[in-house]
Amino acid sequence: MTIMIRPATAPDCVAVAEIYKYYVDHTVITFDYDAPTAADWKIKRADLHAARLPFLVAEDENGTVVGFAYVGQYRVKRAYDWTVENTIYLSPDHTGKGYGKTLLRALLDAVAATSVRRVISVIADSAGTGSVALHAKAGFEEVGRLKRVGYKHGIWVDCILMQFDLDDSDAPPT
């Protein structure tokens, strides 16, 4: 397996939209009912870039975008300025092959270069997904569960909360 991780560009948003649409239409791991368009993803990418937050894509050996990951603001209140929420998705044909591990590690490395101290992952508890295991292997710790908070495709879904501390210092943020 050859994989290249790099910052997402505006043209990558077409592939990002296609990957995400699969999960919107066929799973409960995202609570979106309608898939954002490539234009929507371009706006999100530009907003994250302006906020100096990473949005990465994974390419396979053919140069095809097979996954993406980014971090965004966790909550809007100022006290959360040092905490972000991560998102990671892979093309369904590229799960279980190590792409997720490489992409998530690259994302955490990119976040470590910012002032962020905590990364939160909110993971829909759905059978057959490897997201909890992927995050645990990357060093995330399960810190809670929200019960029956999402309803999609005729079922109620729990969310598992996981946290990764980039800096466990209690020193004030800078």
TrEMBL record:
Per its UniProt record, what CDD domains does this chain match? NAT_SF
Query: What is an example of a GO molecular function annotated in this UniProt entry?
Result: acyltransferase activity, transferring groups other than amino-acyl groups
Task: List, alphabetically, the Gene3D superfamilies matched.
Answer: 3.40.630.30
Give the source's domain of life in one word.
Bacteria
Q: Where is the N-acetyltransferase domain?
A: 3-167
Q: Which InterPro entries match?
A: Acyl_CoA_acyltransferase, GNAT_dom
Keyword Phosphoprotein part of the UniProt annotation: no
Q: Is-annotated flag, keyword Nucleotide-binding?
A: no
The UniProt keyword set, sorted, is:
Acyltransferase, Transferase
Q: Which protein are we looking at? A: Phosphinothricin acetyltransferase
This protein's species is: Williamsia limnetica
Upper lineage: Bacteria, Bacillati, Actinomycetota, Actinomycetes, Mycobacteriales
